Amino acid sequence: MEILTMSLKNLRDRIHRRELSAAEATTQFLTQIEKWNPRLNAYITVNERALDQARAIDRKLATGEDVGPLAGVPMAIKDMLCTKDLRTTAGSKILADFVPPYSATVVERLENSGAITLGKTNQDEFAMGSSSETSYFGVSRNPWDLDRVPGGSSGGSAAAVAGGLACASIGTDTGGSIRQPASFCGVVGIKPTYGRVSRYGIVAYASSLDQAGPMTRTVEDSALVLEAIAGRDPRDSTTAAQPVPTWSQNINKDLKGLKVGLPKEYFLDLLTPETRSAVDKAIAQVRAAGAETVEVSLPLTDIAVSIYYLVATSEASSNLARYDGVRYGHRADFSTEPARDLAEFYCRTRGEGFGSEVKRRIILGTYALSSGYYDAYYKKACQVRRLLRAQFLEVFSKCQVILGPVCIAPAFKIGERISDPLAMYLNDIFTTSANLVGIPGMSVPGGFSAQGLPIGVQLLSAHFQEQHLFNVGAVIEEAMAIKELPNVLQ
Ligand code: GLN
Which residues, in sequence order, are CB contacts of 292 under 8 Å at separation 6+? Predict the structure, then answer.
């Protein structure tokens, strides 16, 4: 049991010192998966080669060969990331049988660092959602309360770490999909600066917003994983040529001289009292660590969600045009009733392959991009996006970190919101800005509700200033780091 709740750093060090073999650690996680995945549905696919990977690491360790910084660490990968010879579905029927011939750069870098791939985690279809309920493979459950969602879209990645079904995982975040599930499941999740992490081999949802990042038990672990996956990649021209700092070795919990901004628009009456109190507690902690807090203002906050749903759906409508049933992915059965023309071929294939949320977004995005509406919707959204960016840059001239809630409330019940897309979209009020502006954001556990549900606190910083997030995150988690598995799973 201890292994399942150990920090990545501890586990890695124990494996490195050969007090524990990578195979043993991997076996423990695989056993937990076998026991709990039928309930949690955190994984869509378990990697049958995981144990072989672990044994290869053990052999290297035995001969004193160089092993990477994540050697032997059993990890879970969101099903948005291509894994060579391992099924990658994006949570969709249209990719239900897709086995990629190559791996995403993130996966390649993790494996080169010695990490073990346990499997591919459940998610909302094409990462469109906040609850993991839009997955073709069924909803994933929150390990803290099996009747509740783990959040989304990286719900399976969050549930896997929280439930001890992986030591750490990778999620993707286009409008909050790492931070919100991290908050709902009590793990640390970071969306890096846009361009920090390569998008090569990651199923594209909204290319100007998508970013992959770590989901871990501790802040330090989050830094360790990000160090392994970040950096320039010639195969993704949007990656930045910035050097990758060794954040994990520079975590400084003395916050003297740091200014932490509290945007007044983030402290709405809408927040549940428990969310408010978790954020207040975090504010007290950063002050106790020497930081000064200042009130700031982000007046465009309430329209960030509208901008996001125009930009994201527009990009999605273009990105998802590639799923046509011709070269790969699901194709409708035309054996008894052949298609009359190409349009019908596409219609039947796409009609069967995509779920209703994905269809809704393709329609929305196509509308926003169509002639006559483009100027009023897509172009206007891009203009306001620039203003939002300017607003954030202005705020970052007054403080280095912004602190606030991740969500209005803790995890909601399965089925509670799925039939009301607008209510679901409004969930994203505090998270979408970071993607629109390109800045990094972290969710760090800040407390529990009376019902025992985790509540995350959000930290934002200026572009490429992730170190601030690790420093402040480390202060907040000190009081809160969740060391146990949820009761239900014990
Ligand atoms: N909840 C948001 C959406 O539904 C965010 C998704 C994401 O970050 N991938 O689009």
Answer: 258, 259, 260
Four-residue CA torsion sign, 466, 468, 469, 474: positive
Residues 182, 359: Cα–Cα separation, whole Å = 27
Is 78 a known active-site residue?
yes
Active site residue 153: yes
- Give the Cα separation of 351 and 342 in Å (integer): 14
Report d(CA 63, CA 340) in Å as an integer: 63
CA atoms of 187 and 168, how far apart (whole Å): 9
Domains of the chain: 2-252+484-489 (3.90.1300.10), 304-383 (no CATH)
404 vs 396: CA distance, rounded Å = 15
| Residue in 122, 133, 173, 177 to alter for ligand 1 test, most ligand atoms within 8 A of Cβ | 177
pLDDT at 481: 65
pLDDT tens track for 188-224: 999 999 999 999 999 999 999 999 999 999 999 999 9
Adjacent-strand bridge partners of 171: 213
Confirm whether 259 is a catalytic residue: no
How many Å lie between the centroid of ligand 1 and the Cα of residue 222?
A: 21
Closest CA to 457 of 479, 434, 476: 476
Ranges of the chain with pLDDT below 70: 1, 481
Catalytic residue among 130, 154, 157, 177: 177
pLDDT at 267: 94
Which tokens sit at 482?
Answer: 């969740």
Ligand 1-lining residues (CB < 6 angstroms): 127-130, 153, 173-177, 205, 312, 428
DSSP assigned state of 378 = I
- pTM for the model stands at 0.98
Q: Which tokens sit at 48?
A: 């049958």
- Which run of H or E residues covers position 308? helix 301-319
257: left (phi over 0), alpha (psi -120 to 50) or beta: left
CA of 440 to the centre of ligand 1 (A): 16
